[in-house]
Amino acid sequence: MQLPPADIGTPVDDIDTPALVVDLDAFERNLAKMAKLARDAGVRMRPHAKTHKSTSVALQQIAHGAVGQCVQKVGEAEVLVAGGVRDVLVSNEVFGQQKFNRLAALGQRARMAVCFDSPEQVAQASKAAKDYGVTLGGLVEIEIGMQRCGVMPGAPAIELARRIAEAPGLEFRGIQAYHGTAQHMPTHAERVAAIRQAGEAVRQTRDGLAKIGLACEIVGGAGSGTFRQEAASGLWNELQVGSYAFMDTDYASIGDEKGGNRYTEFEHSLFVLATIMSAPAADRVVVDAGLKSYSMEKGPPWVHGRAGLEPYGVSDEHARVRVLKGTSTPKLGEKLMLIPGHCDPTINLHDWYVGIRRGRVEALWPISARGASR
Questions:
Q1: Radius of gyration of the chain from Cα atoms?
Q2: What are phi and psi of 328, to 5 degrees?
Q3: How far apart are CA 90 and CA 198, in angstroms?
Q4: Rounded to whole angstroms, what are the CA distances from 126 to 119, 170, 217?
Q5: What is 239-279 written as a DSSP string?
Q6: Strands of the chain, DSSP E
């Protein structure tokens, strides 16, 4: 890891750049708001650590009432368990005996669960659980419209659940029903329709499982774009939200419930702080944060709080910023707060969160699971 780009108490203008900055006030309001929404809906919250990649953030979410964390990779689970998280769901398929052995080793220190969509995985997980003397939880992932992993709902899912329940060392715990594609559908109406359709698949599978005596402790899914629909459905009981804590331009660009073209349920709290390293023309400046500082698959970042400035022409270590007509040109050395297009891969490019409040650095959190991709 690199050294932090600032010390506690450093003024924001003196933070070395590029730096991943968190507005602590906005971040804390986001955590509190989602926790209240889940409580009011009578559902549990299991936030997704694939977004934040940090034990520090995970423990704050748990302090707000989360039952544990989701991860996508065993490596992320290893970091969280080492940092004190005691209930982790790998909300993804795992394949390979080595990976299941690592998961079972974690089961000696924490309650672990994983998603399945094949009998071969069940056999590998059962062997690992027996070898390590633990019980691993198993969820059947069902295909509800994402066309990625998962078995078909109904009979195929029920048969796989039966295999999990009968396998030594495994415990059937429920259904994984995450519709990632629905999170960024451009209109609220489209997202509502997608989750309503997914709910029929969940209901069919849950009811079929009940008929053979298998109860679903967990029906997990939802994301920052559709969590209200899952929470109100009476079907999902755990929300696997991630981006809500930080937000990004991709989420900000989906339509809201009132038909607007901006989603404002949560605040932007995550920024890449950049310095203007060159000011060669009145209509163009250049900052020191490029592709190695934020993800670009959702387009260039936005400049926070500064109308008339538009990043473009991003390269490895630079981004040009267009100065629109009527806007004063920023000065050499001035700092800009950039809102990334996609928070998850942006966070994975940094070693530290720099938490700021009232113009100074108040917290430094290591991004402890950065690069944990296995």
A1: 22
A2: -70, 140
A3: 21
A4: 11, 6, 20
A5: E---GGGT--HHHHTS--TTS-S---SS---EEEEEEEEEE
A6: 19-23, 44-45, 69-71, 87-93, 111-116, 136-141, 170-176, 218-221, 238-239, 270-281, 284-287, 302-303, 309-312, 319-323, 335-339, 352-357, 360-366
Range 31-37, long-range pairs (CB < 8 A, 24+ positions): 31/60, 31/61, 31/64, 31/245, 32/64, 33/266, 34/64, 34/227, 34/239, 34/241, 34/244, 34/245, 34/266, 35/64, 35/65, 35/66, 37/227, 37/228, 37/231
Mean pLDDT value across residues 251-276? 93
> Which two three-digit tokens encode residue 79?
């970091």
Residue 22's beta-bridge partner residues?
270, 355
- The three-class DSSP label of residue 234 is coil
One CATH from 3.40.1440.60, 3.40.50.150, 3.20.20.10, 1.10.3720.10 for 25-248: 3.20.20.10
Number of residues that make up the chain: 374
Token readout for 142 is 């069902």
The domain ranges of the chain are: 12-19+268-366, 25-248
Mapping DSSP to helix (H, G, I), strand (E, B) and coil, where does residue 335 land? strand
pTM for the predicted model, two decimal places = 0.97
Range with the lowest mean pLDDT among 117-126, 254-263, 294-303, 365-374? 254-263
List, in sequence order, the alpha helices (H) in 254-371: 343-347
Indicate the pLDDT class of residue 260, thresholds 50, 70 and 90. confident
Query: Could you tell me where the beta strands, DSSP code E, fall in 72-224?
Result: 87-93, 111-116, 136-141, 170-176, 218-221
Q: Considering only the top CATH level, what class is 12-19+268-366?
A: mainly beta
